[in-house]
Design goal:
single chain; about 325 residues; 14 helices; globular
Protein backbone atom coordinates (compact mmCIF):
# COMPACT_ATOMS: atom_id res chain seq x y z
CA UNK A 1 0.00 0.00 0.00
CA UNK A 2 2.86 2.39 0.83
CA UNK A 3 4.29 1.88 -2.65
CA UNK A 4 0.92 2.60 -4.27
CA UNK A 5 0.55 5.74 -2.17
CA UNK A 6 4.00 6.93 -3.18
CA UNK A 7 3.19 6.33 -6.85
CA UNK A 8 -0.10 8.18 -6.40
CA UNK A 9 1.65 11.18 -4.84
CA UNK A 10 4.20 11.20 -7.68
CA UNK A 11 1.48 11.14 -10.35
CA UNK A 12 -0.49 13.89 -8.61
CA UNK A 13 2.62 16.08 -8.44
CA UNK A 14 3.60 15.51 -12.07
CA UNK A 15 0.12 15.26 -13.62
CA UNK A 16 0.77 17.68 -16.53
CA UNK A 17 4.00 15.96 -17.54
CA UNK A 18 2.53 12.47 -17.25
CA UNK A 19 -0.57 13.27 -19.34
CA UNK A 20 1.57 15.01 -21.97
CA UNK A 21 3.89 12.00 -22.23
CA UNK A 22 0.91 9.65 -22.57
CA UNK A 23 -0.54 11.82 -25.35
CA UNK A 24 2.77 11.95 -27.22
CA UNK A 25 3.45 8.24 -26.74
CA UNK A 26 -0.03 7.29 -27.94
CA UNK A 27 0.34 9.46 -31.03
CA UNK A 28 3.28 7.31 -32.11
CA UNK A 29 1.79 4.06 -30.78
CA UNK A 30 -2.01 4.31 -31.14
CA UNK A 31 -2.63 0.71 -30.15
CA UNK A 32 -1.51 1.45 -26.56
CA UNK A 33 -4.89 2.99 -25.72
CA UNK A 34 -7.01 1.49 -28.46
CA UNK A 35 -9.08 -0.21 -25.77
CA UNK A 36 -10.40 3.10 -24.40
CA UNK A 37 -13.64 3.34 -26.35
CA UNK A 38 -17.36 3.78 -25.73
CA UNK A 39 -18.53 2.37 -22.41
CA UNK A 40 -14.96 1.84 -21.22
CA UNK A 41 -14.24 5.55 -21.64
CA UNK A 42 -17.46 6.43 -19.81
CA UNK A 43 -16.63 4.04 -16.96
CA UNK A 44 -13.16 5.56 -16.58
CA UNK A 45 -14.61 9.06 -16.23
CA UNK A 46 -17.05 7.63 -13.69
CA UNK A 47 -14.10 6.38 -11.62
CA UNK A 48 -12.49 9.84 -11.79
CA UNK A 49 -15.69 11.46 -10.52
CA UNK A 50 -16.02 8.74 -7.87
CA UNK A 51 -12.58 9.72 -6.58
CA UNK A 52 -13.78 13.32 -6.33
CA UNK A 53 -16.92 12.24 -4.47
CA UNK A 54 -14.85 10.22 -2.01
CA UNK A 55 -13.11 13.42 -0.88
CA UNK A 56 -16.35 15.32 -0.23
CA UNK A 57 -17.60 15.74 3.31
CA UNK A 58 -20.73 17.21 4.81
CA UNK A 59 -18.64 20.27 5.71
CA UNK A 60 -17.96 20.88 2.02
CA UNK A 61 -21.67 21.25 1.34
CA UNK A 62 -22.00 23.52 4.35
CA UNK A 63 -19.59 25.81 2.51
CA UNK A 64 -22.22 26.22 -0.21
CA UNK A 65 -24.67 27.45 2.43
CA UNK A 66 -22.25 29.57 4.45
CA UNK A 67 -20.76 31.45 1.46
CA UNK A 68 -23.62 31.53 -1.05
CA UNK A 69 -22.84 34.90 -2.65
CA UNK A 70 -19.15 34.24 -3.29
CA UNK A 71 -19.79 30.80 -4.74
CA UNK A 72 -22.76 32.03 -6.76
CA UNK A 73 -20.61 34.77 -8.32
CA UNK A 74 -17.92 32.23 -9.18
CA UNK A 75 -20.34 29.69 -10.63
CA UNK A 76 -22.16 32.28 -12.73
CA UNK A 77 -18.78 33.42 -14.06
CA UNK A 78 -17.95 29.77 -14.84
CA UNK A 79 -21.08 29.22 -16.91
CA UNK A 80 -21.08 32.60 -18.67
CA UNK A 81 -17.46 33.52 -19.35
CA UNK A 82 -16.14 30.21 -20.65
CA UNK A 83 -19.05 29.38 -22.99
CA UNK A 84 -19.13 32.94 -24.38
CA UNK A 85 -15.36 33.12 -24.78
CA UNK A 86 -15.48 29.85 -26.76
CA UNK A 87 -18.38 31.07 -28.91
CA UNK A 88 -16.60 34.38 -29.58
CA UNK A 89 -13.37 32.63 -30.58
CA UNK A 90 -15.28 30.35 -32.97
CA UNK A 91 -16.84 33.40 -34.61
CA UNK A 92 -13.72 35.56 -34.75
CA UNK A 93 -10.72 33.35 -35.54
CA UNK A 94 -12.40 31.12 -38.08
CA UNK A 95 -12.24 27.76 -36.34
CA UNK A 96 -13.70 24.86 -38.34
CA UNK A 97 -17.19 23.86 -37.24
CA UNK A 98 -16.05 20.56 -35.69
CA UNK A 99 -13.29 22.21 -33.66
CA UNK A 100 -15.67 24.98 -32.62
CA UNK A 101 -18.22 22.50 -31.30
CA UNK A 102 -15.51 20.84 -29.19
CA UNK A 103 -14.29 24.16 -27.82
CA UNK A 104 -17.80 25.34 -26.98
CA UNK A 105 -18.47 22.00 -25.28
CA UNK A 106 -15.37 22.43 -23.12
CA UNK A 107 -16.56 25.93 -22.23
CA UNK A 108 -20.00 24.65 -21.23
CA UNK A 109 -18.64 22.00 -18.85
CA UNK A 110 -18.16 22.52 -15.09
CA UNK A 111 -14.87 23.26 -13.36
CA UNK A 112 -12.08 20.72 -13.48
CA UNK A 113 -11.42 18.42 -10.53
CA UNK A 114 -7.71 19.32 -10.46
CA UNK A 115 -8.47 23.02 -9.92
CA UNK A 116 -8.66 22.39 -6.16
CA UNK A 117 -5.08 21.13 -6.18
CA UNK A 118 -3.83 24.10 -8.21
CA UNK A 119 -5.65 26.47 -5.84
CA UNK A 120 -3.90 24.87 -2.88
CA UNK A 121 -0.50 25.16 -4.60
CA UNK A 122 -0.88 28.90 -5.22
CA UNK A 123 -2.20 29.69 -1.71
CA UNK A 124 -5.71 30.34 -2.93
CA UNK A 125 -8.94 29.81 -1.00
CA UNK A 126 -9.33 26.02 -1.13
CA UNK A 127 -12.76 25.98 0.55
CA UNK A 128 -14.00 28.47 -2.05
CA UNK A 129 -12.52 26.29 -4.80
CA UNK A 130 -14.21 23.14 -3.50
CA UNK A 131 -17.50 25.00 -3.22
CA UNK A 132 -17.29 26.29 -6.80
CA UNK A 133 -16.31 22.90 -8.22
CA UNK A 134 -19.10 21.17 -6.30
CA UNK A 135 -21.82 23.62 -7.31
CA UNK A 136 -20.79 23.81 -10.98
CA UNK A 137 -20.64 20.01 -11.17
CA UNK A 138 -24.08 19.66 -9.58
CA UNK A 139 -25.46 22.26 -12.01
CA UNK A 140 -23.80 20.69 -15.06
CA UNK A 141 -26.61 18.23 -16.00
CA UNK A 142 -28.85 21.24 -16.66
CA UNK A 143 -26.40 23.98 -17.61
CA UNK A 144 -24.15 22.11 -20.04
CA UNK A 145 -26.91 20.79 -22.37
CA UNK A 146 -28.81 24.08 -22.19
CA UNK A 147 -25.75 26.17 -23.08
CA UNK A 148 -24.75 23.79 -25.87
CA UNK A 149 -28.25 23.99 -27.35
CA UNK A 150 -28.11 27.78 -27.19
CA UNK A 151 -24.59 28.36 -28.50
CA UNK A 152 -24.10 25.44 -30.91
CA UNK A 153 -27.67 24.42 -31.74
CA UNK A 154 -27.74 26.54 -34.91
CA UNK A 155 -24.84 24.68 -36.52
CA UNK A 156 -25.16 21.14 -35.19
CA UNK A 157 -27.87 18.89 -33.75
CA UNK A 158 -27.54 18.87 -29.97
CA UNK A 159 -29.21 16.03 -28.07
CA UNK A 160 -29.78 18.03 -24.90
CA UNK A 161 -31.80 15.29 -23.17
CA UNK A 162 -29.23 12.63 -24.02
CA UNK A 163 -26.44 14.89 -22.77
CA UNK A 164 -28.37 15.50 -19.55
CA UNK A 165 -28.64 11.74 -18.97
CA UNK A 166 -24.94 11.20 -19.79
CA UNK A 167 -23.80 13.85 -17.31
CA UNK A 168 -26.02 12.40 -14.59
CA UNK A 169 -24.54 8.98 -15.26
CA UNK A 170 -20.87 9.93 -15.32
CA UNK A 171 -20.78 12.77 -12.77
CA UNK A 172 -23.65 13.01 -10.31
CA UNK A 173 -24.12 9.26 -9.70
CA UNK A 174 -20.40 8.50 -9.03
CA UNK A 175 -20.04 11.62 -6.88
CA UNK A 176 -23.09 10.60 -4.83
CA UNK A 177 -21.66 7.11 -4.35
CA UNK A 178 -18.27 8.51 -3.36
CA UNK A 179 -19.84 10.96 -0.91
CA UNK A 180 -21.87 8.12 0.65
CA UNK A 181 -18.75 6.00 1.05
CA UNK A 182 -16.99 8.87 2.77
CA UNK A 183 -19.99 9.48 5.03
CA UNK A 184 -20.10 5.84 6.17
CA UNK A 185 -16.42 4.88 6.18
CA UNK A 186 -14.53 8.20 6.31
CA UNK A 187 -13.57 7.76 9.94
CA UNK A 188 -11.87 4.41 9.41
CA UNK A 189 -8.11 4.15 9.05
CA UNK A 190 -8.32 1.74 6.11
CA UNK A 191 -10.49 4.22 4.19
CA UNK A 192 -7.91 6.95 4.79
CA UNK A 193 -5.18 4.72 3.41
CA UNK A 194 -7.24 3.97 0.29
CA UNK A 195 -7.92 7.68 -0.21
CA UNK A 196 -4.19 8.33 -0.52
CA UNK A 197 -4.18 6.14 -3.64
CA UNK A 198 -7.21 7.76 -5.31
CA UNK A 199 -5.42 10.85 -6.72
CA UNK A 200 -3.10 8.58 -8.70
CA UNK A 201 -6.06 6.56 -9.99
CA UNK A 202 -7.76 9.79 -11.10
CA UNK A 203 -4.61 10.88 -12.97
CA UNK A 204 -4.30 7.47 -14.64
CA UNK A 205 -7.96 7.68 -15.64
CA UNK A 206 -7.58 11.14 -17.16
CA UNK A 207 -4.47 10.00 -19.03
CA UNK A 208 -6.37 6.97 -20.35
CA UNK A 209 -9.19 9.18 -21.66
CA UNK A 210 -6.71 11.45 -23.42
CA UNK A 211 -4.83 8.43 -24.76
CA UNK A 212 -8.06 6.93 -26.08
CA UNK A 213 -8.93 10.04 -28.07
CA UNK A 214 -5.39 10.39 -29.42
CA UNK A 215 -5.47 6.71 -30.38
CA UNK A 216 -8.71 7.11 -32.29
CA UNK A 217 -8.18 10.59 -33.73
CA UNK A 218 -4.42 10.97 -33.92
CA UNK A 219 -4.51 11.45 -37.68
CA UNK A 220 -6.70 14.53 -37.21
CA UNK A 221 -4.00 16.24 -35.16
CA UNK A 222 -1.85 16.55 -38.28
CA UNK A 223 -4.55 18.44 -40.18
CA UNK A 224 -5.96 20.65 -37.44
CA UNK A 225 -3.53 20.40 -34.52
CA UNK A 226 -2.14 23.94 -34.65
CA UNK A 227 -5.56 25.55 -35.05
CA UNK A 228 -6.99 23.41 -32.24
CA UNK A 229 -4.18 24.39 -29.88
CA UNK A 230 -4.53 28.10 -30.70
CA UNK A 231 -8.24 27.92 -29.87
CA UNK A 232 -7.65 25.95 -26.65
CA UNK A 233 -4.80 28.24 -25.57
CA UNK A 234 -6.77 31.45 -26.11
CA UNK A 235 -9.91 30.01 -24.48
CA UNK A 236 -8.03 28.86 -21.40
CA UNK A 237 -5.87 32.00 -21.05
CA UNK A 238 -8.81 34.38 -21.40
CA UNK A 239 -10.67 32.30 -18.81
CA UNK A 240 -7.86 32.82 -16.29
CA UNK A 241 -7.68 36.55 -17.04
CA UNK A 242 -11.40 37.30 -17.01
CA UNK A 243 -11.91 35.07 -13.98
CA UNK A 244 -9.33 37.10 -12.07
CA UNK A 245 -10.89 40.38 -13.21
CA UNK A 246 -14.30 39.11 -12.08
CA UNK A 247 -12.83 38.52 -8.62
CA UNK A 248 -11.37 42.03 -8.64
CA UNK A 249 -14.72 43.53 -9.67
CA UNK A 250 -16.41 41.61 -6.85
CA UNK A 251 -13.81 43.02 -4.42
CA UNK A 252 -12.52 39.57 -3.50
CA UNK A 253 -9.24 39.33 -1.62
CA UNK A 254 -6.11 38.04 -3.36
CA UNK A 255 -6.66 34.40 -2.38
CA UNK A 256 -10.22 34.44 -3.75
CA UNK A 257 -9.15 36.20 -6.96
CA UNK A 258 -6.61 33.48 -7.63
CA UNK A 259 -9.20 30.83 -6.87
CA UNK A 260 -11.86 32.17 -9.22
CA UNK A 261 -9.22 32.67 -11.93
CA UNK A 262 -8.19 29.01 -11.78
CA UNK A 263 -11.74 27.72 -11.32
CA UNK A 264 -13.03 29.63 -14.35
CA UNK A 265 -10.04 28.84 -16.56
CA UNK A 266 -9.76 25.11 -15.80
CA UNK A 267 -12.65 23.06 -17.16
CA UNK A 268 -13.61 19.41 -16.75
CA UNK A 269 -12.28 18.64 -20.21
CA UNK A 270 -12.37 14.92 -19.44
CA UNK A 271 -16.16 15.18 -19.27
CA UNK A 272 -16.16 17.20 -22.50
CA UNK A 273 -14.08 14.50 -24.19
CA UNK A 274 -16.51 11.75 -23.22
CA UNK A 275 -19.53 13.84 -24.25
CA UNK A 276 -17.94 14.77 -27.59
CA UNK A 277 -17.14 11.14 -28.37
CA UNK A 278 -20.62 9.96 -27.39
CA UNK A 279 -22.83 12.72 -28.74
CA UNK A 280 -20.85 14.00 -31.75
CA UNK A 281 -19.37 10.82 -33.26
CA UNK A 282 -19.50 12.27 -36.78
CA UNK A 283 -17.31 15.21 -35.69
CA UNK A 284 -14.00 13.69 -34.53
CA UNK A 285 -12.29 17.08 -34.24
CA UNK A 286 -14.71 17.96 -31.43
CA UNK A 287 -13.20 15.17 -29.33
CA UNK A 288 -9.72 16.26 -30.41
CA UNK A 289 -10.33 19.80 -29.12
CA UNK A 290 -11.57 18.36 -25.82
CA UNK A 291 -8.57 16.03 -25.49
CA UNK A 292 -6.11 18.85 -26.20
CA UNK A 293 -7.90 20.87 -23.52
CA UNK A 294 -7.40 17.94 -21.10
CA UNK A 295 -3.67 18.09 -21.63
CA UNK A 296 -3.26 21.86 -21.79
CA UNK A 297 -5.47 22.72 -18.81
CA UNK A 298 -3.39 20.40 -16.63
CA UNK A 299 -0.19 22.10 -17.80
CA UNK A 300 -1.49 25.66 -17.67
CA UNK A 301 -3.04 25.19 -14.22
CA UNK A 302 0.36 24.24 -12.83
CA UNK A 303 1.92 27.18 -14.69
CA UNK A 304 -0.66 29.60 -13.24
CA UNK A 305 0.02 28.35 -9.74
CA UNK A 306 3.72 28.96 -10.41
CA UNK A 307 3.04 32.49 -11.70
CA UNK A 308 1.04 33.38 -8.60
CA UNK A 309 3.77 31.96 -6.32
CA UNK A 310 6.44 33.85 -8.27
CA UNK A 311 4.44 37.06 -7.78
CA UNK A 312 4.39 36.40 -4.03
CA UNK A 313 8.15 35.87 -4.00
CA UNK A 314 8.74 39.05 -6.01
CA UNK A 315 6.59 41.16 -3.69
CA UNK A 316 8.24 39.60 -0.67
CA UNK A 317 11.70 40.55 -1.98
CA UNK A 318 10.57 44.12 -2.66
CA UNK A 319 9.19 44.47 0.87
CA UNK A 320 12.39 42.98 2.25
Amino acid sequence: MKILQAVSAFLAKWTPLFITLVAIGTFFCPSAFGWVRGNTQTAILGVIMLSMGMTLKTEDFRILLSRPLDIAIGTVAQFTLMPLIAWTLVKTIGLPREVGVGLILVGCCPGGVSSNIMTFLCKGDVAFSVGMTSLSTLAAPLMTPMLMLWLAGETVDVDALGMFKSILLVTIAPIAIGFSLNAFFGGRKAYGEIMKVMPGIAVLGLAAIVGGVVSAQGSNFASSGVLVFVGVFLHNSLGYLLGYLTGAAARFNTAKRRTISIEVGMQNAGLATVLATKHFPAMPEAAVASAVSCVWHSISGALMAGVFNAADAFLSRRKG
